[in-house]
Specification:
With 436 residues, the protein is α/β, with parallel strands linked by helices. It has four domains: 128 residues, Rossmann fold (3-Layer(aba) Sandwich); 121 residues, 2-Layer Sandwich (Transcription Regulator spoIIAA), CATH 3.30.750; 120 residues, Transcription Regulator spoIIAA, CATH 3.30.750.200; 56 residues, OB fold (Dihydrolipoamide Acetyltransferase, E2P) (Beta Barrel). The chain is 31% helix and 21% strand. The strands form five sheets. Strands 2-1-3-4-5 form a five-stranded parallel beta sheet, sandwiched between helices. A five-stranded mixed beta barrel has the order 14-15-16-18-17. A three-stranded parallel beta sheet has the order 6-9-10, sandwiched between helices. β17 and β18 form a beta hairpin. It is globular, with a radius of gyration of 22 Å. Bound molecules: S-adenosyl-L-homocysteine, iron/sulfur cluster (SF4) and FE3-S4 cluster (F3S).
């Protein structure tokens, strides 16, 4: 039996797909070369904006056609769409799908397949899907989910509904996974969670007695920094309300990358309050100041929503102003998309699409101006880069600020951290030569 997984959405979904693949391998399935040769197709969906859901509706209809040539094909839909479909509206629009379940229920996939007549071996599987042995995408960098779900209930966001309430993985399980990766030669890990810096260990007794931190997230980072072999530790997404002094202090632990992703969403206090974000622009800028003092030169990333209900031109000016002050290297800017079932859905979506687009471009242009200026610092510098791919003598990867790099080289460099001299520092790529 062969499976094929199609993944939409964020890194959390990419990581979940690795764990679903791990579960299916455990059941003796193999990965198909594509949808056409699969007996089970899983769509791991995203609900964050309407456009993300629309893509899934389109794709399912195409996939269901494949049942004509393979009558035993099972089409399963999981990820973030099923969890928020409380009144079966989406399910009704997807009659061709055989299974439709929230990601948290993926542990029941074997029973669901059996109910459809698929014969499977009996296995003792973990009770939490986060504990499945994943099928990692490569052998040098890995996603490590440490938390899933969310209790924050920002008024625009589907995640608390689609993924459920926050659950935290045990320190023991996280440390064991990272130690195994280190033994296999993995160099970089990306920790994942929705309000990751509010990580609450279910088993704090497993922090070592030498650990100097009280805050659980800071303590976890300290533990992971002790693991020999791992070179770069990166995490996403931190929430400004939990960016305590202790967490800020961990930015200079030896393996932390020179990058922090700290979504601000808006720069106006009126909009932040309506979004149920529990900080003000002043709090946010104060945190940024502390961060830059602790680790000067750190690259900063953020997420911003433009055109939230009631966002006036003046509110938006505040966002652009905060953007300049924080001096972000990268910002994932999104036009507000109303999501049914969220509190903001009841607010009038009163910023015209044209105006949302205008605001989006203001931020985009601002980001390009800032990142180009900041990247100039790398001109003629030697930097360390993790090589991810090589093709016909051209390799690509990223530095420890998560910036995309290109350099000359061959396949032997893939999965290594090497030195590169930057010849050309552009907006979205640092180009250079391998230093031997
Ligand atoms: N937990 C993270 C982000 C999760 S969702 C955090 O709190 O920052 C990823 C991003 O999608 C959000 O940061 C937000 O910028 C964007 N987003 C979420 N809901 C949205 C909506 N309804 N419309 C537009 N963008 C949205
Ligand atoms: Fe959504 Fe807010 Fe939770 Fe992030 S913190 S996942 S934006 S509810
Ligand atoms: Fe990620 Fe989309 Fe779900 S952004 S958490 S896959 S709604």
């Amino acid at each position: 039996m062969k499976f094929h997984i199609i993944t939409y959405g964020c890194q959390m979904n990419k990581s979940d797909s690795e764990r679903i693949a791990g579960l299916l391998r455990e059941l003796g399935w193999e990965e198909a070369s594509g949808a056409e040769t699969a007996d089970l197709i899983i769509l791991n969906t995203c609900s964050v904006r309407q456009s993300a859901e629309n893509r899934v509706f389109g794709e399912v209809n195409n996939l269901v056609e494949l049942k004509k040539t393979n009558p035993r094909l099972v089409v399963a839909i999981t990820g973030c769409m099923p969890g928020r479909d409380k009144n079966n509206q989406m399910r009704k629009k997807l009659p061709g799908a055989d299974l439709f379940f929230p990601i948290i229920d993926v542990i029941h996939l074997p029973e669901m397949l059996q109910a459809l007549g698929v014969v499977l071996p009996q296995k003792n599987l973990p009770q939490d899907y986060l504990d499945f042995a994943p099928q990692y995408t490569n052998n040098f960098q890995a996603f490590i989910p440490i938390q899933t779900g969310c209790n924050n209930f920002c008024t625009y966001c589907v995640v608390p509904y689609s993924r459920g309430r926050e659950r935290n993985r045990s320190v023991k399980s996280i440390v064991e996974e990272v130690k195994k990766l280190a033994e296999k030669g993995y160099l970089e890990i990306t920790l994942l969670g929705q309000t990751i810096n509010n990580y609450q260990a279910p088993d704090p007794e497993n922090f070592s007695s030498l650990n100097p931190f009280k805050n659980h997230f800071a303590a976890l980072l300290w533990e992971l920094n002790q693991i020999e072999g791992i070179k770069w530790i990166h995490y996403t997404a931190a929430d400004p309300q939990y960016m305590s002094d202790e967490v800020i202090a961990t930015l200079i632990l030896p393996k932390q990358v020179n990058y922090l992703h700290l979504p601000v969403q808006a720069g106006s206090n009126a909009v932040l309050a309506k979004m149920n974000r529990k900080y003000t622009r002043e709090n946010y800028l104060e945190i940024i100041t502390k961060i830059k003092k602790t680790r000067p030169g750190i690259a900063l990333g953020t997420d911003i929503i433009v055109g939230f209900p009631g966002e006036t031109a003046e509110d938006f000016t505040q966002t652009a102003d905060l953007f300049r002050q924080a001096d972000f290297d990268i910002s994932y800017n999104a036009k507000y998309s109303p999501r049914s079932g969220t509190p903001a859905f009841k607010m009038a979506d009163d910023v015209l699409l044209e105006e949302k687009e205008r605001r989006w471009w203001v931020l985009q242009n601002l980001m390009e101006e800032i990142v180009l200026r900041k990247n100039q610092i790398f001109s003629n510098q030697e930097i360390e880069v993790l090589v991810e791919k090589c093709n016909n003598g051209l390799c690509s990867g990223h530095n420890n600020e998560m910036k995309f790099v290109q350099l000359n080289g061959d396949e032997t460099l893939v999965g290594k951290i090497v030195k590169m001299k930057v010849d050309e520092a552009g907006m979205w790529v640092l180009r250079g030569k391998l230093v031997i």
